[in-house]
Amino acid sequence: MISIDRSILLEASDPSLPLAAPDLADALASDLTLIEPQTLERRVSALIREYVRARSAALAQSVVRHIEALCLHPENDDPALFCAYQRLAVHWRWLAAQHGSAGT
């Protein structure tokens, strides 16, 4: 089993952060790890498709929050999958930062 600091998710689930879609407000206000991993993966896919259509820091940050939830999910006990999620999160954090530095 992977040991992960869950404080990351608590910070990432701050309901005051910008949301990609209104229906995510309730999920972000609680713990995203309560959502099934398959549902989280579908949301990540949908957020990425939306990001391709309308790039923004808020969308990139939402992708990061969902990926972090997948990393922290109690059902995630696969080290290779955890590592892949971590790499993906690094990329999306970088994308979010690019929007911040570009003023968009």
Written description of the protein model:
This protein is an all-alpha fold and 104 residues long. The protein has one domain (7-12, 35-102). Helix content is 65%, strand content 0%. The protein has five helices and no strands. Helix 3 (37-53) packs antiparallel against helix 4 (57-72) and helix 4 (57-72) runs antiparallel to helix 5 (79-102). The radius of gyration is 13 Å and the shape is globular.
Short description:
The chain is built from five helices and no strands.
Strand-pairing-aware structural class: mainly alpha
Number of domains: 1
Helix content: 55-70%
Rounded average pLDDT: 77
Per DSSP, what share of the residues sits in E-state strands of 2 or more residues? under 5%
The SSE string, one letter per element, is HHHHH
Topology (SSEs and partners):
Layout lengths: L6 H6 L12 H5 L7 H17 L3 H16 L6 H24 L2
Helix pairs in contact: 3-4, 4-5
Keywords:
disordered N terminus, 104 residues, mainly alpha, single chain, globular
